[in-house]
Amino acid sequence: EVQLVESGGGLVQPGGSLRLSCAASGFTFRSYAMNWVRQAPGKGLEWLSYISGSGGSIFYADSVKGRFTISRDNAKNSLYLQINSLRAEDTAVYFCVREGDSGSFSVSWGQGTLVTVSS
Amino acid sequence: DFVMTQSPESLAVSLGERATINCKSSQSVLASSNNKNYLAWYQQKPGQPPKLLIYWASTRESGVPDRFSGSGSGTDFTLTISSLQAEDVAVYYCQQYYSTLYTFGQGTKLEIK
């Protein structure tokens, strides 16, 4: 069974940094592209970043480019998101998402980790 | 950039009736190389992560009830629930994955009338 478990969220002051982690299991992690998607309280879904299975291709939404850094450690079956210069509008649940076998749709989602940016 | 616009924003349908949600892309998501539409639909219930329902615009994910169907091509797509059940109350999102800068629609909230 595919499992994605996010961690690293919490309360952080504006301007601070966080590193989110996603522990993957139940599939061959290195074979799949991964994404981060977030959802602000009461709002819709916002795609943030993509990383290929090898880590060689990376893309970001314009809204987070320069502040967010996606990475992965295939030896540890883990995905990461480094978030710098946090703003109030970054308050959201952050989801780790695995792509499908045959396309880039989001097949498997973690439960998410909540990041709250507030002083 | 691809902008995905869903309509309506909210919808109330009686149990057993048909529910229809629309999604319009600012650019075509139909790839000429394989004649596939890079469009997916998700269902999100309160307190849960989204769940994949439909991909390639009309292919139902394994385990999704056949009352859910997707249609459309190019820039205009529809998610149809043929006979609404109480457990279908949720927010539904479309997403394009044609561009690597994936984008979601704003969501449609489906309720029981």
Notes on the structure:
Chain A is an all-beta fold and 119 residues long. Chain A contains no helices and eleven strands. In chain A, strands 2, 4, 5, 6, 9, 10 and 11 form a seven-stranded mixed beta sheet that branches. The radius of gyration of chain A is 13 Å and the shape is globular. The relative contact order of chain A is 0.31. The mean pLDDT of chain A is 96. Chain B is an all-beta fold. Helices cover 0% and strands 51% of the residues of chain B. In chain B, the strands form three sheets. In chain B, strands 2, 6, 7, 8, 11, 12 and 13 form a seven-stranded mixed beta sheet that branches. In chain B, a hairpin with a 6-residue loop joins strand 11 and strand 12. Chain B starts with a strand and ends with a strand. At the A-B interface, strand 5 and strand 10 of A face strand 6, strand 7, strand 11 and strand 12 of B.
Key traits:
heterodimer, A: 119 residues, mainly beta, 7-stranded mixed β-sheet, 4-stranded antiparallel β-sheet, 0% helix, 51% strand, B: 113 residues, 13 strands, globular
The greatest inter-chain interface is formed by:
A-B, 21 and 25 residues
Distance between the termini of chain A: 40 Å
Low-confidence stretches of chain B: none
Estimate the global geometry of chain B from the Cα principal axes.
globular
Cα distance spanning the termini of chain B:
36 Å
List the helices and strands and how they pair.
The complex is a heterodimer of chains A (119) and B (113).
Chain A lengths: L2 E5 L2 E3 L5 E8 L8 E6 L5 E7 L6 E3 L7 E6 L4 E6 L8 E8 L6 E4 L3 E5 L2
Parallel strand pairs in A: 2-11
Antiparallel strand pairs in A: 1-3, 3-8, 4-5, 4-9, 5-6, 7-8, 9-10, 9-11
Chain B lengths: L3 E4 L2 E4 L5 E7 L4 E2 L4 E2 L1 E6 L6 E5 L3 E2 L7 E6 L2 E6 L8 E7 L6 E2 L3 E5 L1
Parallel strand pairs in B: 2-13
Antiparallel strand pairs in B: 1-3, 3-10, 4-5, 6-7, 6-11, 7-8, 9-10, 11-12, 11-13
